[in-house]
Amino acid sequence: MEIVEPVASIDEYLESTAYVGSRSDAIIQKAQELCKGLVSEPEKVAACFAYVRDDVAHTVDIGESTVIRTAEDALFQEHGTCYTKGMLLVALLRSLEIPAGFCYQRLFENSDDDPHFFLHGLTAYYSADQNSWIRLDPRGGSKDVDAPRVDADLVSRDYLVFRIDESIGEVDYLTVLPRHPDQVLAILEVSSNCIRMIEQDLPTMLDTSA
Questions:
Q1: How far is CA 1 from the centre of its chain?
Q2: What is the DSSP letter of 204?
C-alpha cells in the first residue's frame, strides 16, 4: 500500500464546507441511517463507502447531463461524477467525525478517436486504528463491474480500481487534500453538460503549485 500524506491539519479534514456540507441535516441523517447499530470505525466507513459506490450512480453511466456540484446534490439526485461522489463520501465520513479528504490519479483514456489524460478523483480517510490514511475509489458503476462486496476488511486498505502505468505518464498523487482544488471546482461551476464535461473539459493533471 502506498503511503499518502495529508497537507493540512487534521481539523481541516473535518470541516463542513459549501461543497461538502457535512453538517447539513440531510447528510447527518443519511450517515446515521447507514451506520445504525454499527460500532467500529471500519464498519461505519464500509457502510458509507458501499452506499456511495453502489447506490449512487455515476452521472455518465446513466446518460444524465446534469452537473452535480455538491455532496448534498449527489445525495438528493442519487448520481454524480467521481468528484462529487467523492464529496458525498467525504461529507458522510466527516459527519461521523472521521477525517476525510481528496486524492487524485492522472489516468490515460486510450479511446480510438480521442486518446487523452484526465484527472480522476478518489477519497481518503484517516484510520485511527491503523494511524494512516487509506484511499478509496467511490466511482463504481461501469468502471468497476467486478467490484468486490464492501466490508470492514475491504476498507482497511487502499481500494483502487485503476492501476497506474508510469511508463505512459499516469500518476498517483500521494497527497490528501482537505478540499477539491480550484481547478476541479471551476470545472464543476462553469460546466452545463456533464457528458461534455467528462469527454472534453476535465483537468489533465493535478496542479501541485496551488
A1: 18
A2: S
Whose CA is closest to 3, among 209, 158, 170?
Answer: 158
Grid look-up 490514511 returns 133
Q: For the segment 71-123, what is each residue's pLDDT rounded down to a tens digit?
A: 999 999 999 999 999 999 999 999 999 999 999 999 998 876 778 899 999 99
DSSP 17-85: -TTT-TTSHHHHHHHHHHTTT--SHHHHHHHHHHIIIIISEETTTTT------SHHHHHHHTEE-HHHH
As given in the structure block, the three cell numbers for residue 187 are 470545472
For residue 138, how many other CB atoms are within 10 A of its CB? 28
Give the C-alpha separation, 183 to 175, whole Å. 16
